[in-house]
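Write out the 3D structure for:
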Amino acid sequence: MQNAESQQTLICIVCPRGCQLTAGTGQDGRLEISGNSCPRGIEYARQELTAPMRVLTALMRLQDMEKPVSVKTDRPVPKELLFDCAAEIYRTHPASPVHRGDILIRDLCGTGCNVIATRDASAGTT
């Protein structure tokens, strides 16, 4: 790697080890990653530096309930779309009952991700 100024330090979150990764551009212009204990760390760092993604968790209000239901995306969404995706979740108010695993929004903000309920909820339950 060239110099410390062009390097970034990341903590890998793929497994419980939490390896401290160092990533930077090599003399040939290619991304170089070190500090990983397994190959998954390399893939994590590449993804994080080129197109970071996150699973979005939120609370969604149902039409006939005061207490919201917890929801999440079924796969990561691009980090730069998190606020747009959250706004769409907050605008949507499906009818109850909702069962764990139900898809409440399909293709969230054009990402191809679905929003699913993480617990059961109905007007008669708390």
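DSSP finds two helices and nine strands in the chain.
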